[in-house]
Amino acid sequence: VLVDKKPKRYIENQFSGRTGPNKTVVFTSKKNLLGQLVKVKIIKSTAWTLYGELIE
């Protein structure tokens, strides 16, 4: 996942990014990961958004 921003509905330590097929993924991290590629395990999905946990 390429981390590109903090979501509009800001929750502390929450980030969002995009997968290769351009799906939005939301996850939390204590580190500032903007602009980095990270691995995220998907734990929940909706019609438009994937939610996951950062794999460190």
Short description, anyone?
This protein is mainly beta.
Structural class assignment: mainly beta
Low-confidence stretches: none
CATH T-level topology: OB fold (Dihydrolipoamide Acetyltransferase, E2P)
| Element-level helix/strand string | EEEEE
Number of domains: 1
Protein described:
The protein has one domain: OB fold (Dihydrolipoamide Acetyltransferase, E2P), CATH 2.40.50. It is mainly β and 56 residues long. It has strands spanning 2-5, 14-18, 24-28, 39-45, 49-55. It is built from no helices and 5 strands. The chain has a 5-stranded mixed beta sheet, with no helix packed on it. A hairpin with a 5-residue loop joins strand 2 (14-18) and strand 3.
Chain-wise SSE layout:
Elements: E1 2-5, E2 14-18, E3 24-28, E4 39-45, E5 49-55
Parallel strand pairs: 3-5
Antiparallel strand pairs: 1-2, 2-3, 4-5
Characteristics:
single chain; 56 residues; mainly beta; OB fold (Dihydrolipoamide Acetyltransferase, E2P); 5-stranded mixed beta sheet; 5 strands; globular
